[in-house]
Amino acid sequence: MQSLDSALRILNAGGLVGIPTETVYGLGADASNPQAVRRIFAAKGRPADHPLIVHLGTVSQLHTWAKEVPAPAWVLAQAFWPGPLTLIFKRAEGVLDEVTGGADTVALRIPDHPLTLQLLQQFGRGIAAPSANKYGAVSPTTAQHVRDDLGNAVDLVLDGGPCRLGIESTIVDVSRGMPVILRPGGISQQQLEDVLGFAVQVESKSAVKTSGQDMSHYAPNARVYVVTEETDKALSEELLAQGLKIRHVLLADANELARQLYGLLREADEQGMDAILIQEPRPEGVGVAVLDRLQRAAAPRKNK
Ligand code: TXA
Ligand code: MG
Questions:
Q1: Buried-most residue among 205, 274, 275, 301 (CB within 10 A)?
Q2: DSSP structure string for 138-169
Q3: pLDDT confidence of residue 205
Q4: Are 105 and 221 in contact (CB under 8 A)?
Q5: Residue 131: CB within 6 Å of ligand 1?
Q6: Cα 14 from chain centroid?
Q7: Nearest Cα residue to atom 3 of ligand 1
Q8: Which ligand lies nearest to the CA atom of residue 21 in the structure?
Q9: Geometric angle at alpha carbon 150, from 147 and 151, rounded to 5°
Q10: Would you say residue 172 has pLDDT above 70?
């Protein structure tokens, strides 16, 4: 495929490629090339001490990046890769500070998208990729979102269609012995516990900078309200009485809401909406991650 060849050429030359994954689009660069990795931060406007996820094509590359692979990490990797799970390991020698933000750990994931898996396997090295949005904006779930956000700062966007899940990967720290969830995502706590056979803790505040975990990080310009079928009516009347332009999102199915959420938030801003009222998903499966992002989007903000 021609675009795949172009993507390989660009990566080998130290350029940036927008890559589709099952979660959200990533902004990829050769994880072994410090100049290329620095370009990611410049393109996103992201602080340099926020670490990146290194995407791999096969599990055989694990030891190039991870110093040690504890038993629970193997179990999780076997069960969920390729898939929406990012594992944090102690980093192997030679892993760039540019990638880890200077931390002694590294985040690794094998994504589940045919085009990007092919790219990773042909490239043969790791691809460092944060979500392909401007710093502070919502993650992109289509190739067009990436172009809208980054324009000429990205050399090529591989179009793999709309993302199947629409919400970022679950991040699990396996560098400290017992696995700890740092960010809820496409794989639920229940799924993790089912394959591990024991309870997994959720950490609310990480020592390492996890940019996606800042409150109000996922916020659009429109005010976000999380509502129930009961509170929706009274709140809409109140907002309409103030002369505000509002939009409702009533998707009871959490998977469908996950798939559409970031696109809807972007659309609400394009249409100049003042407020967006989103029906609260049930806190099960991917609903937990959706609720986490909604709470961040709805959090009161400085400067806005
Ligand atoms: O689904 C996803 O995870 C997408 C796709 C493209 O793979 N990527 C993504 O990357 O969401 P990003 O950079 O937007 O979010 C990754 C999060 C950041 O909050 C980062 O701080 C955290 O992972 N992270 C990366 N390395 C870490 C480390 N060594 N320790 C703790 N957190 C880390
Ligand atoms: Mg992000």
A1: 275
A2: PPP-SHHHHHHHHGGGSSEE----S-SS-SPP
A3: 66
A4: no
A5: yes
A6: 23
A7: 169
A8: 1
A9: 60
A10: yes
